[in-house]
Amino acid sequence: MSLIGVTLAKDGPWGHYVGHVKIELGGNGRDATLLENFVYIDPKGHTWGAPAGWKIDGASIPRPFWSIIGGPFEGKYRDASVIHDVACDQRNMAWKEVHQMFYNAMRCSGTEERQAKIMYYAVYHFGPRWGLGPAINSFFATEKEPSAEDVERVKDWVKRKNPNLKEIENAKSEALPTR
C-alpha cells in the first residue's frame, strides 16, 4: 500500500480516517500486526497509510507518558498512534511533519485538546527524529528519557497555560524538559 503523498478531499477540521484499526496482538504483550489497511487523511488532504501486515508497538510515544494517557492501543488516540508508528518507521516525511500529523490525527479521533497537546509535547521533544535526503535512514535516538517528574511538569504546564503548538515546539525552560 503506497498511499503516502496522495491528496484526497479533506473532511472535517482535523481530517478523517478511512477504515478501522484491526490488529492481532503479538505474544509478547506489546506488539501487534495490522490486519487491514488503515488510512488517515490530514486537514490538508495528505494521506498517511498504515498497510496490512505492518508491525506496530506504540514505541513512537515515549513510554513515561503512558502513565497519564494509557498504553498505545487504548483510548481515543489509538488510531493516531497506529498511523504515527507506521510513519515513524517509514520515515518518508520529515519528523516534524509526522509529529504534527499525530496531533491532528489525535484531534480527529476525539482526543481532548490539552491531552493531545501533552502527547504532542512528548513526541516532539522525546520522540523519534530522523533526517531526510542523503541521510534518510539516519535515526536520532532520544537523548534523554523523561522522568515521572518531567511528565507531571509537562502535564501541569499544558493544563495551566494551554499553549499553542509553536509554544510547545519552542518550550525551552528548566521547568519544562526537552531533548
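[next item in queue]
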Amino acid sequence: MRELHGLSKHRLYSVWKSLKTRCYNNKHIQYKDYGGRNITICNEWLNSFLSFYDFCISHGWLDGLEIDRINNDGNYEPNNVQFITCLENCTVGKKRKYENNKSGYNGVHYSFIRNKFISRISINGKRIHLGSFNTKVEALQARIDAELLYFNEQLTNL
C-alpha cells in the first residue's frame, strides 16, 4: 500500500530516497560504498518515510544538517545515526580509512608513474597538492602538517 503523507517536496524525503538508492540499487554510483558493503536501512524506515521523518524531526534534524552513521560499518537505524553539519561530516569522513586506499591513509597514495608517494588535502572542495615524497612516512607527515595548519587538529588516524 502506498503511503500518503504530502511531504514529497520536503528535504528529508530526498534524503530518505537517496539512502534507499545507495543501499539497494546496485546500478547507483555509490552502491559499492553502501549496499555493496551490506549497509542497509532498518525495516521501520525502509518501509515508511513517515517513520523516518518522525524520527529525524524528534531527534534534532534541522535543515542544513546531514545524516551520518556513527559506526561507518553499521546500518541506517535509530541507534546508529546522528545529525551533523556538512563540515563535521567531511571531518568524520577524513578520519575513516578506506579499503581501496593502498597506503592506509586518506590523502596519501603511491604513484607508480612518479615512483613516489603523493600527499594531498582538500580545503573547501579544492584539492591541494602537498608534494611528492620518497617514503610513505614523509607523505603522511606532510598531510598531518597540513591538517594542523588548515584545521588546527590532526584528522588522520595513525
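[queue empty]
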